[in-house]
Amino acid sequence: MKELNLTACDETLYTVLDEIKAHLKSLDCPEEIMTPILISAEEIYVNIAHYAYGGKQGMAKVNIDVCPDPGICRLVFRDKGIPYNPLEKEDPDTTLSAEERKIGGLGIYFVKEMMDKVEYEYKDGCNILTIEKML
Amino acid sequence: MTVEEIKGENSIQLSVEGQVDTITAPELQQHILTAFQKTKSVILDLGQVGYMSSAGLRALLLGQKTATSKGGTMKVINVQPAVMQVFNLSGFAKVLTLG
Question: CA-based, 20 to 30 A from A78: which of A85, A127, B8, B24?
């Protein structure tokens, strides 16, 4: 189990992704499992960095837990920003044409589709988003 | 991520290598928009791209919208399986011109 405490901003994104990647590589996790986990982590972390604190900077805590038996990767993202459950956001219409499409809105949809389990809770002043994927 | 621009007779090919994510997508977007200032036909070679987040899709959508507004085309070639999964999930497989 690894815990990262970071200023949530684009500049710290690779710190998070590199740490997750290192954990997964230590278990010889195949690329086809690792890539969706990394994309999901990026989408959540960038959402915190851009929106959780209403445009101001704040902290994010990321717990990385990769178990070999049973093979599971569990990531927990915490922030003390504006209470917001991203799972309540309506899924984008993926059948629209390029002209009808809005820029953005796909991030949390990817997380829901790519991960096996996604849970949100608001506790002790924290947004807590937990995602899991079987390895 | 690196982007190599190869000028053809009537088109510009952008060969992308590396990860297209929140950090690198704005640079790719800039390359695409700059290419469309020079030509109506842009070819995007993603053969060396194994990772694309929604930030990358944003750049591609803007490129596709630019192509349409200019009466041009943006063709995306050599899409790798991990990126195709993202295209399929998002519906971009039908939005983009894949070759």
Answer: B24
**Residue B42: what are its φ and ψ, rounded to 5°?**
-115, 135
Q: Which of residues 8-37 of B touch A (CB under 8 A)?
A: 21-23
CA distance B5 to chain A (A): 24
What's the pLDDT score for residue B85?
95
Q: If you search the block for the tokens 């690329």, which residue do you land on?
A: A31
Q: Strands B12-20 and B41-52, how do they pair?
A: parallel
Residues B54, A101: C-beta atoms closer than 8 Å: no
Structural domain including B47 reads 2-98
Q: For chain B, what is the domain count?
A: 1
Interface of A with B in 53-92 (CB under 8 A): 92
List, in order of start, the domains of chain A with CATH numbers. 2-134 (3.30.565.10)
Query: B62 — contact with chain A (CB < 8 Å)?
Result: yes
Residues 6+ apart with CB under 8 A from B94: A95
Instruction: Tell me which residues of chain B have a pLDDT lower than 50.
Output: none
pLDDT band (50, 70, 90) for residue A120: very high
Nearest CA in chain A to B52: A39
- ipTM reported for the complex, 2 dp: 0.93
Q: Give me the residues paired with residue A5 across strands.
A: A61
| Chain B residues touching A31 at Cβ < 8 A | 50, 82
B19-47 burial, b if ≥16 CB within 10 A, otherwise e? bbbbbbbeebbebbeebbeebbbbbbbbe
